[in-house]
Amino acid sequence: MDAIVSFLQAAVTFIGGLAARIGIVLLAMAALAIPALLLLAAARGIRRLQQRLLGLTPVGHLTFRPGLFYAPGHTWVRPEGDDLRVGLDDLAQKIVPWALAIELPRPGTKVRKGEPAAVISCGGKRMVITAPASGVVSVINSAVAHDPSLVKSDSYTRGWLFRMTPFDTTWRAFPSGERARKWFEVEGHRFDAYLESHLGIAAADGGAYVAPPASLLSNDQWDGLMRTFLEAPAGQAEASVN
């Protein structure tokens, strides 16, 4: 009997000690996880605040930023003194599955409206970005040159491409404000229809594209996508910036 009691006491002591150790481990894990969760929540809060400050609004399953001019090749431009800051709008950003490298024009380079100005390498395919206006490149975004993923994660702010001094003011005819928002909505529907007609599947499900277009389109289809939405000249899917 004494042996049984001793065994039970030892078992209880062992189980209690094990539970205490597990509790300590869980507390330690919680102590490590809580700061990480707080940082994640803070980052999300900052992101939402930034979006509100920028006025970012959903248009279908795209994101629209007011206060910009939108070029037909799905770049946005913003006047800054005598220069224009140039970046990708959200439809162009959605086309890019990921950005592995980016070729930007050197400062001092003359670019012509509608001709290749930048090239993004995105997993076996190259995305040609055409110049929204004719002019001279004044500054490139060194941050995006070192971290091309910014064109995906922050295309309206930190992921801008370059600044240029335009030769004329024809860019002022680009849609802006409510006219740009309506154009953006039409372009989003047109993009969905393009994917459906070429891939034979629903382009979007629940507000998100079912797969990155680059991973589904053939080379010819990709070249057609560049011409249709980014206004890249035919056969420019493998172009480089001079």
TrEMBL record:
SUPFAM superfamilies: Single hybrid motif (SSF51230)
Membrane-crossing residue ranges in chain numbering: 20-43
Family annotation (CDD domains): GCS_H
Statement: the UniProt record of this protein carries the keyword Zinc-finger: no
Signal peptide coordinates: none
Keyword Transmembrane: yes
One Pfam family it belongs to: GCV_H
Keywords for this protein: Lipoyl, Membrane, Transmembrane, Transmembrane helix
Superkingdom to which the source organism belongs: Bacteria
PANTHER family: GLYCINE CLEAVAGE SYSTEM H PROTEIN, GLYCINE CLEAVAGE SYSTEM H PROTEIN-RELATED
Name recorded for this polypeptide: Glycine cleavage H-protein
Source organism of this protein record: Anaeromyxobacter paludicola
Biological classification of the source: Bacteria, Pseudomonadati, Myxococcota, Myxococcia, Myxococcales
